[in-house]
Write a structure and sequence with these properties.
The protein is 47% helix and 22% strand. The strands form five sheets. It has a nine-stranded mixed sheet. A six-stranded mixed sheet has the order 18-19-20-21-22-23, with no helix packed on it. It has a five-stranded mixed barrel with strand order 1-2-4-8-5. Strand 6 and strand 7 form a beta hairpin. It is an alpha+beta fold. It is a multi-pass membrane protein.
Amino acid sequence: MMAEAGENGKKSRLFTGERVVNFRPVFLLALAAACAAFSARFSGWYSLLSALPVTAAAAAVALLKRKGALRRGRRFGMRGAAVFIALLAIVFCGTAAGFQLVREGYEGAPAFDGECYIAGTVHEANAYDYGYRLTLKDVQVMNGDGYFSAEYKMYAYVSGGEHVPAGTRVRFFAEIETMDFFAYGEVNSYPVLDGVKYRAFVGAENVEYAGKSFDLFGSVRDALRGALFSGMEEEQAGVAYAMLTGDSGLIDEGMLDSFRYGGTAHVFAVSGLHIGVVYGLLSALMKKLRAKPFVRLPVIAAVLVFYAGVCGFSPSSVRAMIMCLALSFAGAVGLKYDALNSVSLAALCVLLVNPVYFYQVGFRLSVAAAGGIIVLGGSLSRLLARVPHMPGKLASAVGVSVSAQAATFPILLDSFGYISALGMLLNLVFVPLASFVYSVLFVCAAASCIFPFAARALLWLPQVLLVLTELPVLAFDWKALLIGGFSFGGWALVWFGLCFLLSDKINLRPIPKGVAAALLCTALTAGMVFANAPLPGACVEIYARYGTNFVRIECGGENYLVLTGVPDPTEAERYFLREGIEGVDGVFLACDAQSADGALAALLQSAGVERAYIDAASGYEYGFSETDVFKEEGAFAAGGVFAEFVGGEAVLLRIGGARVLVAGVGTATDGFCKADILIAENYSPGLYAMCLPSLEIYFEKTPAKLDIYDTGGLQISVKDDIISCKGRNVDHEVRIV
């Protein structure tokens, strides 16, 4: 962890100063909490045993440090080291135990399914494509087994209708779905952190409203929403509401995509930019009023906590709030402020409150961006300042932008499948402009909530500024400049290690630092090439997310898809961006005619489709000018793939010597069709008996079977009569019988 300079004051040839890296206890505690959350996911309660090697390693380092200090005639505080080691063990065990308790509580909650009568109070209402998603608290459920009060909240997806104010009591009949702690190979972090266990879908006409109670934060959000939409045009009001609360559901999807593809959508996640502006405004006001520290600190803390509550206590807002409060506290008591310890403290506090935050993309991006700016920003800015004729402010802005992009690069790629190639350049213009616009917007929006009758006048200037802010984002098609088609996986740790090594936090001399960086770069490059290399032979990739099911075949340099239903256009676009696919050579439509038309229409929104194949017996009568549709009867060839539609809504493919049956939900099972691999929605005894496969794979949760709901995705290759199946926690081979 630390290495001292040579004995008798001799300078080390490896590093400058007294040690390679400064000892930062808060950073190490936060790192221990993150490791504990990661370990608990895979090991459960057994992860507590991992605290033993962690504390043993820390104790060994402390003993070595003590031995070195005694040899040089220096004192080493073993008591302080013992206290830190104890804290390290407590944090590790506390985080691991906390994760497991949250998991057991969530998984142990009663499950409801089927048609039920539901009553609940609206905690939050968020717009989505087809209406509103209501987060209901105080949920009560009545079914054939009785009347129950649910421990967890519910997502009610209401199609159509209007915005429902927080605190409104609603009642309706609907089918309930119970969500799981793990879904599609990942921790289901967003509903778990929202305290949501159930979801239901209902039309607005079937919802009954029965009174209204008071909800503080919800009422503030509703008042803010009302003021913005009464004082601004709808487009700018949606953007303003997203900037102030982090809820981007009211923004037009096309505009939101432009912000995402331009790498500027972070402005809609209330974080350091937003909380920092609010903190700066409050600090300036307190300074103007000459408030004493014992008054200034509580006032600033109260306002920031309240604002974070209005934003739903999102991880990014809480992280930024804690950092600002640490800065304010340090200034009030005369302590030296350390930015890295501050962001570490914020991350530690969030993980101790709920370790599941470790698996939320927003938390990772927030901490990574702040940490990247702190670790890399200073050294990059100083390096750029040496460039002739480079203004100091420009060097600082570029250094901050590059460091944030570098730190979030692997997280963005692995989570969303792409990153903006020119996001750094766009942010150089956008971030300073957005900071100024946000400061004006915050003050004017607060005033319009207090004086709603004057909202139109108060919000005129913010509206004009928002229009100007949108211009650089909407001026170009940023989607054409996206980087994607590969992922980091576990190699992201090597990337972060490389970034940390190249920062001024590591005091190595240029030559050893260069050698270490070269070794890490070599390892990272080799690992990335290996991790992203396609499997040998013909390859089948299976992907599913909440009803969007894809089977993709790579054969002979061509890409084919099999669809068994209508995919969600947004999810389809994410998949294609993640895989770096701009178009497919052919699509097999293993579904009825109406679903096939919807599936092809949804697909064409995201990718080009050269050819589409459907069973001639389906009665398909639709068509698209962009795609040639072939109605097939019997066996046929599609490029390097031989196929045949069977059972009404299934397609039998011959890939690399294996017979692969992809079956839709309406597949008839009254015949026999031998297949080596069966891919279907759910297990069906009739379907299994129909094909007697060597390998079964199902899209949805299927107990005791291999399913995408558990694995998140699978890759299958066939070579020399061997079926290789690889995925998260899955790696086995099956011989074709």
